[in-house]
Amino acid sequence: MNDIKALLGERIPQLKVKENLMLSTCTSFRTGGPADAGAYPETSDELRELLMLCGQEGVPFYILGNGTNVLAPDEGFRGVMIFTSNMREIVVDDETCEARAGAGALLSALAAECAKKELTGLEYARGIPGSVGGAVVMNAGAYGGEIKDSLISVRVMDERGGQPFEMSNAELELGYRHSIIPERRLVVLEALFGLKKGDRESIYGLMDELSARRKEKQPLEFPSAGSTFKRPDGYFAGKLIEDAGLKGFETGGAQVSTKHAGFVINKGGATSSDIKKLIEEVQKRVFENSGVRLETEVRYIP
Description:
Uridine Diphospho-n-acetylenolpyruvylglucosamine Reductase, domain 1, 3 domains, 4-stranded mixed sheet
C-alpha cells in the first residue's frame, strides 16, 4: 500500500500523515517494524472521515493511543496506524467537579490538571502513562483506583465512522481491565469524569507517595508495557512468576524484570518476537508450576 499517503492526502487534505512510520518509535516497548502510514486526526470529524475512508477503500487500520499497552509486530503493519494524540483537550470545572478529556489526552496530564483545581479521585492515575481513551477501553487502574470509580460517560463512534453517541458508565460494563468497547468495535472520542473537592496538600501528598512507590518497585528505567499480566483471582502475577523461578529469566533482549517479576522489559535490543516468546514461556511455566493461567494486559497489534 505504497500509495496510502497519497490516498489520504487526496481525500482528507488537512489530515496530518507520516509515511513508513517505525512502530518502535511510538510504542513503550520500543519494538516493532514500519507501518505504511501514521495518521493524526485533530478532531472527531477528521477521525470519522478517516474511518469512513478506510472502510470504503478497504485500508486496514489500528487505533493507537499512547502506545503504552501494546506489542507491535516486527514485520510492521500494512495499513494506517491512527493516533488520537492530537485529540487531547482537557477541561476541568472546579465548580461542577467535572473533567472532560479527549481520547488522546494523557491520563497523567488529566490527573495533574484535576489536582491543580483541588479535585480528588484521580491521584492513582498520575503515574499511568496511557491515554484517556486507552484507559477507558481497559478500565485502567492502580493502587486501588480504577477508571470506573469516577467515569460518568464517554462519547464514542463505531469503527466504520458512524455518528458519535454517548454511553454511560453502566453501559460500558466496566470490570477488571475490561469494557465492552472492543467487543462492540467502538472508538472512544472523549470521556467525562466526576470528582470531588479535596485538600490540595492531601492530593499532592498521595500523588507523591504513589510516585515514590512506583519508582521503588517498578522497572521504570527500562522500556515495557507496564504490568504484563492481569491479576488472577486470589493470586498476584508477580508472585506466581517468581515462585516458578522466572525472575530475571531472559529470551533474547527481553527479560522478566529482576525488580518486579510482573513486568516483562526490553533489557536492550529486544524484538517483539523476543517479548512474545518470553511472555508465552512465562505463561507455560507458571501453569505447570501452579495450575494458574496468566492472561496478558498487553494487547498484540495484528
